[in-house]
Amino acid sequence: MARKVVVTREVFDDVLDRLRGSADVVDNQGDVPLTPVQLAERCVDADALVCALTDRIDAALLARCPKLKVVSNIAVGYNNIDLAACTAHGVMATNTPGVLDETTADFAWTLMLGAARRITEAERYLRDGRWTGWQLKQLLGADVHHATLGIIGMGRIGQAIARRALGFSMQVLYCNRSRLDPRVEQSLNARWVSQDELLAAADFVVLMVPYSQATHHLIGRAELSRMKPTAVLVNTARGGVVDDLALVDALRRRTIAAAGIDVFEGEPAFHRDFLELDNVVLAPHVASSSAATRHAMAMLAARNALAGLSGERPPNLLNPEVALS
Questions:
Q1: Range of the domain at 199
Q2: How does pLDDT run across 9-44, given as a tens digit for each residue?
């Protein structure tokens, strides 16, 4: 009997072709998000699942899918997957690290520069027909060069962000669970500090931590109050790492100068008061969204799924204890 792979969202045609070379594929090229019930119905006899961060993979779903061997997430983050439940059901879970590091770092810089130089505010000003000519003090922004950059979460993407800071002659402070090798610190011109010290000293604070209970509202009202009133906050990590209500209030009160936000609590829903603020650059969770990178993510997810189906250890296995059992 042919193996069955369920793909929950639209992917590239050659990714489907790669999967179809080894399995029967149920796709969703219409890209209509599946409800939990619809997802369970499609996966009840599936051997592999290629899913997105919008799909919740939990014990209830896995209990209905006795044949499932591998869950392959098209994302680096995997807070949509209950890893413990996957392990309990003998299901390998995988993600797509590495292939999106540089693109996500580029976008963090896009938000940083856009917020610092008030680019969305300037565009609205122009589009609304309010520009009547050059003025010396028109839309004054903040310099990025020679400023202090603070990075909370110094993994692969955080380090890619720091490398770009070298070209802007920035001092880099970072906060991480563990300190980097001194040689890496030296290559990045980076210094390990506490979160409180980073918040107080940085002109730009970039968040690059995974979402978990430990990082829920890592940046809230108290943390925002420790930042400089001229500082810019950038979140390209996950919704929930920032208390969005507290951030809206801080931006409105000018507790901090500006923010660049790509992820939101409860997305695609978000705090509508963000729309009323001029000092925030908003994006709909597109930090990794270059054509080349999204294709690489989807193809890596397919390789992970096919490896699991073939009885091999997937390249990006999150729960290796399953493969060892």
A1: 101-282
A2: 999 999 999 999 999 999 999 999 999 999 999 999
pTM for this entry: 0.93
Task: Look up residue 82 and give its two tokens.
Answer: 């209950």
Choose, from 3, 18, 285, 303, the residue flagged as catalytic: 285
Q: 244 and 122, same structural domain?
A: yes
**Same domain, residue pair 43 and 106:** no
Residues 231 and 275 in one domain: yes
Angle between helices 156-166 and 101-116 (to 10 degrees): 50
Among 217, 267, 271, 313, the active-site one is 267
Q: Rounded to whole angstroms, how far apart are CA atoms 177 and 153?
A: 8
Cα dihedral sign, 126-128-134-140? negative
DSSP classification of residue 274: G
We report the CATH number of the domain holding residue 70 as 3.40.50.720
Domain count of the chain? 2
Please identify which of the residues 42, 89, 118, 238 carries the catalytic annotation. Answer: 238
User: Is 285 noted as a catalytic residue in this protein?
Assistant: yes
In the residue annotation, 238 being an active-site residue is answered as: yes
> Amino acid identity, residue 39?
L
